[in-house]
Amino acid sequence: MGGFSPSTFLLWAILACLFEGFLVAHLYSYDKFQCVKWGSGRQPGAFKRIMTYSYLATVPLLMVYSLTMTVLSYQQGFLITADGKVLAIPFSSWTHTARKRLLPLFFVLASAWALELVTHLEELTFWLFLLHQGPHKRDWFRSWEFRVWYLGSVIAILGMPLTVIIKRANLDLCFAWIFLAGSAAGLATTLCFMYVLVRFPGFIRRVKFEGAEPEVVVRLTIFYQLNITRMIFRFMFHFPLLILALDAVQGPHDIIAKHLDPSCCPKYRAASDLLVMLGGIGCFVSSAITLFIFFPRSITREIGYRVKISSTPSVDQIARAPSLPDYHR
Q1: Which of 18, 97, 106, 253 is most deeply buried (CB count within 10 A of its CB)?
Q2: Is the dihedral of CA 276, 173, 80, 64 positive or negative?
């Protein structure tokens, strides 16, 4: 499982650094980092802050992991076979100094993945709570959806590091089990979120029927469209890594593991690198879309414009009314 070329870790490092820079710029433009303060927002509280901090902490952890793995993998170099083929070196063949650094890095990766699972499980359960909200208003903290999030978060926070501890004797297999636990849990969350997307058009119609503000309906519609795109990239994130993990845990198969055989065709040796790269692209693109959903910017609000509220219009005013709202300072 550890036989990836250094270029795969380099791609993850580049994507992590680019996304971290984009995240900082977006939050500054959003409200100059006011959203990260503990008492920010109209409804401040520990639950909201936990969600914010768990999401924001994931990317720096991935940066530390991917940058360090890039440096270490390039330092280890490549394995050149007798017939001149170039292969990536598995973790078990790294130098003793490099292997001592792998276990802490695996804990960093497992912690980042656990926080990612906590964030998206909260999003899933909260939208299920809203979709199941009937005429009698329920309390979020007393709902079954909150209990599902709480239990799932505890399992993620404890389970991912425990996976590293239990499987630490074999570093290559430990890496595979991290991928298996994280991608399987993430894929299950993504599949459950498809139920939310199926029900969401009806939820938007209900909100419109109840007389919600146009800005609310527009934001919900944008949220729905963004999530359709995000689901594509989340599948791109989880499926390739799950395939790699299953192949490593269950034993070598012809689909992926031919890259370990020096006599095989180069296209098979590139299969594992391709899957890891696809997983990295899906991970960071879906995280960028999540940023737009969690912290949606409003250009009209940022530049100080608001919709002009006029008195009851006359017939002549209605006839001359523009098709777009009249914005003014």
Answers
A1: 106
A2: positive
pTM (two decimals):
0.84
Distance of CA 233 to the CA centre of its chain: 9
In tens, the pLDDT along 212-266 reads 788 888 888 999 999 999 999 999 999 999 999 998 888 655 444 444 444 444 4
Rounded distance between C-alpha atoms, residue 227 and residue 216, angstroms = 16
Distance in angstroms (rounded) separating the CA atoms of residues 236 and 282: 5
Contact between residue 78 and residue 86 where contact means Cβ atoms under 8 Å apart: yes
Angle at 298 between CA 294 and CA 302, to 5 degrees: 120
110, 160 in Cβ contact below 8 A?
yes
How far apart CA 83 and CA 90 sit, in angstroms, is 19
Calculate Rg over the CA atoms of the chain. Answer: 24
| Lowest-pLDDT choice from 65-69, 75-79, 221-225, 265-269 | 265-269
Q: Phi/psi at 306 (nearest 5 deg)?
A: -145, 160
Query: CA angle, corner 73, sides to 71 and 77, nearest 5?
Result: 115
Give the residue among 109, 126, 127, 123 at the shortest CA–CA distance from 289: 123
Of residues 128 and 39, more confidently modeled: 128
Alpha-carbon torsion (244, 247, 253, 258), positive or negative: positive
Apex 136 CA angle, 130 and 139, nearest 5:
60
CA 152/CA 177 separation, integer angstroms: 18
Compute the distance between CA of residue 179 and CA of residue 238 in angstroms, rounded to an integer. 9
